[in-house]
Specification:
The protein has 173 residues and is mainly α. 57% of the residues lie in helices and 0% in strands. The chain has helices at 2-17, 30-40, 50-63, 67-78, 87-95, 101-104, 110-120, 122-127, 134-145, 163-166. The protein is globular.
Length: 173
């Protein structure tokens, strides 16, 4: 669990500094946000510039019609999580963003996201043996499992002309 705490702290620090593209409260409900703040012993309301607050408000508004999708993804991720701490909710909320997952999380690189995944979701790393981009991998797996009312946003990969955009070069996640 120390690795998960490290990653939660890293993601919270990114949020507090305005890095990444999180919705308000990082997409958590107020109870989970309070628990996270207590767990990390940090401010529940870190001060941010008006521009960052406006960006978070917009992200929260855009997330509203996709809450069921986010919740399904979070619950699926939770099944692979190494810890009961809410890193799965943060990943699912960030996955609703429009950039690469590592960018929406405020991480420095795709490699850093790979480290987070290895520490917090090692089973998924093993499953992603073709090194598919993480957000695409999540949706691909969910569609293959046909859980709930998920709209499959991942194509049939073997037949897709954009294969190179979904998969990382060898050795890179």
């Amino acid at each position: 669990m120390p690795e998960t705490i490290h990653w939660l702290q890293r993601l919270y620090d990114n949020y507090a500094s305005g890095r990444g593209h999180f919705p308000e409260l990082m997409g958590l409900d107020s109870g989970a946000w309070s628990l996270l703040s207590r767990t990390l012993q940090c401010d529940e309301t870190p001060p941010v510039a008006a521009e960052i607050a406006a960006r978070r408000s917009l992200a929260s508004t855009l997330l509203q019609p996709r809450l069921a999708e986010r919740d399904q993804l979070a619950l699926w991720l939770k099944g692979y999580a190494q810890s009961p701490l809410p890193v799965h909710w943060l990943l699912a909320s960030a996955a609703m963003g429009f950039n690469h997952l590592w960018e929406d999380l405020g991480l420095d690189s795709r490699a850093e996201l790979g480290e987070l995944m290895q520490d917090c979701f090692p089973q998924l790393v093993v499953m992603n043996d073709k090194k598919m981009r993480w957000k695409k991998f999540f949706y691909r797996q969910r569609c293959l499992q046909q859980e709930g009312d998920l709209v499959c946003r991942s194509p049939s990969c073997d037949d897709c002309c954009e294969w190179v955009h979904c998969f990382a070069p060898e050795g890179e996640h």
